[in-house]
Design a protein that fits this description.
Structural class: alpha/beta
Bound molecules: flavin-adenine dinucleotide, FE2/S2 (inorganic) cluster
Number of helices: 8
CATH class of the largest domain: Alpha Beta
Order of helices and strands: HEEHEEEEEEEEHEEHEHEEHEHEH
Distance between the termini: 29 Å
Strand order of the largest sheet: 9-8-11-6-7-10
Helix content: 10-25%
CATH architecture of the largest domain: 3-Layer(aba) Sandwich
CATH topology of the largest domain: Rossmann fold
Number of strands: 17
Largest sheet: 6 strands, antiparallel
């Protein structure tokens, strides 16, 4: 159902397309649906009982009428399919590559800070990556790609020289995007989940927008802090600009004994340091387990659902299908 909506240019809220993140939740008012892969994990029993469905997993068995919460406004950028050339690829840590993509000069590519693109593979399969550069710097699109062992897209990037390779991308996609306002922002990122948050930080700071920003970035160890210097520079730049204020806190889950900063899970560190979250808008991006923890633990600490935005870096849909097929064959 989500595919049908997107094909009809309705940019309904969605993120993982894998049934995990709950972003594509809608209420079924009329008609029948089924889930070819079983009831998705991103829906609780009480939500099912209340008539909610996940559009990315549901197939319609009849004409249906649904209620969604957020449909795009007319001025929102439409997603399109474009060729893109890998202009530069910089390996910035043992398992992260910064890719810079050049789009055709004649094409205007408008997006919002925090959105992502899909890189198209053969057979219509796709891989999602967040745009780490802000909209005002769209000459080259910056992506942070983590190496996934055996990953169809990411693994060859680290093994071969893909400089100048031509890709097909689709975007911009997703509802995880900076919203203007006065509330302080709490940004929580895990690993390459930093990418969309960096786009938001750069958007606010480089446009000298008045906003308090607080970034907690969680990685495993010191060697994973692949953007440390850039974040420290952003703190200095924000301080020089007077209007945006940035606090940056790295949190390591498995640091060396020499590490003097915070240790543990990044969302727990943020919760421990900010007792009352009710004033904050929260943007969280990264591994599905971190997003699940943020969703469950930040609500009771005062973050209203409408002020909590998340981007769950789930497996690609065909990878999920493969995993389901494998586990069905094994059982
Ligand atoms: C909205 C969105 C934005 C994303 N943004 C980014 C980003 O900015 N940077 C980034 O690095 N990733 C991002 N991801 C995650 C990325 O799209 C997936 O990890 C993707 O599957 C990687 O493609 P691949 O071809 O390299 O690996 P695949 O061929 O998909 O995977 C190969 C194997 O690796 C394992 N695997 C795949 N993905 C994951 C995962 N996420 N965690 C653990 N194991 C995995 C599976 O076992 C799989 O069989 C995002 C995902 C979403 C939904
Ligand atoms: S659950 Fe449908 S987009 Fe994530």
């Amino acid at each position: 159902m989500l595919d049908a909506a997107l094909a009809a240019s309705l940019n309904l809220p969605h993120s993982c397309k894998g049934g995990n993140c709950g972003s594509c939740r809608a209420r079924l008012l009329q008609g029948e649906i089924h889930y070819p892969n079983g009831t998705p994990l991103g829906l609780s029993d009480s939500e099912v009982a209340e008539g909610y469905i996940l559009l990315c997993q549901a197939r319609a068995l009849s004409d249906v009428r649904i209620e969604t919460f957020d449909i795009n406004t007319p001025d929102q950028a439409r997603s399109k399919r474009l060729p893109a050339r890998i202009e530069r690829a910089e390996q910035v840590s043992h398992d992260v590559m910064r890719l810079y993509l050049r789009l055709p000069v004649a094409e205007e590519f408008r997006f919002e800070a925090g959105q992502y693109i899909d890189i198209m593979l053969q057979g219509g399969r796709r891989r999602s990556f967040s745009i780490a550069s802000p909209p005002h710097d769209s000459r080259l699109l910056e992506l942070h790609v983590r190496r996934v062992a055996g990953g169809e897209f990411s693994a060859p990037l680290f093994d071969d020289d893909r400089h100048s390779a031509l890709l097909t991308i689709e975007g911009p996609l997703g509802r995880f995007a900076y919203r203007p306002g006065d509330s302080p922002l709490l940004l929580v990122g895990g690993g390459t989940g930093l990418a969309p948050l960096l786009a938001i930080l750069r958007h606010v700071i480089e446009n000298d927008i008045e906003r308090d920003l607080c970034l907690y970035w969680g990685v495993r160890a010191e060697r994973d802090l692949y953007a440390q210097a850039q974040l420290e520079q952003l703190v200095v730049r924000a301080a020089a600009g007077h209007r945006a204020r940035l606090t940056y806190v790295p949190v390591l889950s498995e640091p060396t004994p020499e590490w003097s900063g915070l240790r543990g899970w990044v969302h727990e560190a943020a919760l421990a340091h900010i007792p009352d979250l009710s004033q904050y808008e929260v943007y969280a991006a990264g591994p599905p387990a971190m997003i699940a923890a943020v969703r469950h633990e930040f609500g009771p600490r005062g973050v209203a659902p409408g002020r909590l935005f998340f981007d769950s870096f789930d497996y690609a849909p065909d990878t999920l299908d493969r995993q389901r097929t494998n586990s069905a064959t094994r059982s």
